[in-house]
Amino acid sequence: MNYTEQFQSIIERRRSNRKFDPNVIVPDDVIKRSLERAILSPNSSNMQLWEFYIVKSEEKKKKFVSYCLNQSAAYTAQQFVVFVTRQDLWRKRAKWNIERIKESADGNPENLLIKRGLDYYGKLMPITYFNDWLGISGCIRWLICTVVGLFRPMMRFGGKADQRVMVHKSCALAAQTFMLSIAAEDFDTCPMEGFDKVRVKRELNLPRNAEINMIIAVGKGTDKGIWGKRFRVPYQEVVFTV
Ligand SMILES: Cc1cc2nc3c(=O)[nH]c(=O)nc-3n(C[C@H](O)[C@H](O)[C@H](O)COP(=O)(O)O)c2cc1C
């Protein structure tokens, strides 16, 4: 099979499976490799404002089944991976990127690309991610975008909702890479948003600004776990050439 055929077969192989075989263990290596691939996903400004929690002990799994509202993908899952957004880590990640850029400067800190990179993480990221309790910084960002946007194209970016969308986009891309990887490893997944986010956050000891993007149940799927044919709205109804 060439790359295109392999990719097509992985896309077709991945289905949301809601009944996993209790007798087939998912090797830890499969989860690890898939998370390593997930981490290579594209993400906003390479800020990597995400974390991934593997749930595999029987005691924790039992709790997560109830947090996932006892849905069948959850109570038959071998393991869960919780995809978490960590907007609150922006300072740490910006600093991390600055360190990597400095390392790559290779004794040439005057290089234009290096300078741009340092400005990007040292100046633009604080403007993008800073928040104050009253939301004043968000209003100022919104106002600047709106006024400047009257005269030239501008990335419209303002308050907390925009920041949340940004981190969730990146995290969901990692989740998709993870699911495709698990399919390529001949195992199955079911992404879930049907869960109690308050209890999940508390169980994982996450801070206030962290959010649960989705929980992915993993196991060896069964035929009974596929609830029907794969329906999609026709191509012409959702794809437009403008
Ligand atoms: C963000 C997200 C949340 C989902 N939540 C659930 C869920 O809580 N329970 C469930 O059984 N399926 C859930 N699904 C699976 C979808 O129902 C499924 O992807 C969709 O029906 C298409 O089927 P397919 O994945 O087999 O192609 C979720 C999917 C996504 C992307």
Mind explaining what this structure looks like?
By secondary structure, the protein is α+β, with helices and mostly antiparallel strands. The protein folds into two domains: 12-88 and 162-224, NADH Oxidase; 90-159, no CATH class. The chain is built from ten helices and four strands; from the N terminus they run H-H-E-H-H-E-H-H-H-H-E-H-E-H. It has helices spanning 3-13, 28-39, 58-67, 72-75, 90-104, 112-129, 136-149, 160-184, 197-203, 235-238, and strands spanning 50-55, 79-85, 188-192, 211-219. It has a four-stranded antiparallel sheet with strand order 1-2-4-3, with helices on both faces. Helix 5 (90-104) packs antiparallel against helix 6 (112-129). The longest helix has 25 residues, at 160-184. The two termini are 34 Å apart. The model has no long low-confidence stretch (mean pLDDT 96). The structure holds flavin mononucleotide.
Q: How do the helices and strands line up, and which of them pair or pack?
A:
Elements: H1 3-13, H2 28-39, E1 50-55, H3 58-67, H4 72-75, E2 79-85, H5 90-104, H6 112-129, H7 136-149, H8 160-184, E3 188-192, H9 197-203, E4 211-219, H10 235-238
Antiparallel strand pairs: 1-2, 2-4, 3-4
Helix pairs in contact: 2-8, 5-6
Flavin mononucleotide binds at residues 15-16, 18, 71, 73, 190-194, 214, 230.
User: How many structural domains?
Assistant: 2
Question: What is the 3D shape?
Answer: globular
Query: Kindly state the mean pLDDT as a whole number?
Result: 96
Strand order of the largest sheet: 1-2-4-3
Q: What is the CATH architecture descriptor of the largest domain?
A: 3-Layer(aba) Sandwich
Instruction: Determine the N-to-C terminus distance.
Output: 34 Å
Beta-strand percent range = 5-15%
Low-confidence blocks of residues:
none
Q: Helices and strands: which structural class?
A: alpha+beta
The biggest beta sheet is recorded as: 4 strands, antiparallel
Query: Might you state the CATH topology name of the largest domain?
Result: NADH Oxidase
Number of strands: 4
CATH superfamily assignment of the largest domain? Answer: NADH Oxidase
The SSE order reads HHEHHEHHHHEHEH
Rounded to an integer in angstroms, the radius of gyration calculated over CA atoms is 21 Å
Which range best describes the helical content: under 10%, 10-25%, 25-40%, 40-55%, 55-70% or over 70%? 40-55%
Number of DSSP helical runs: 10
Q: What is the CATH level 1 assignment of the largest domain?
A: Alpha Beta
Ligand identities: flavin mononucleotide
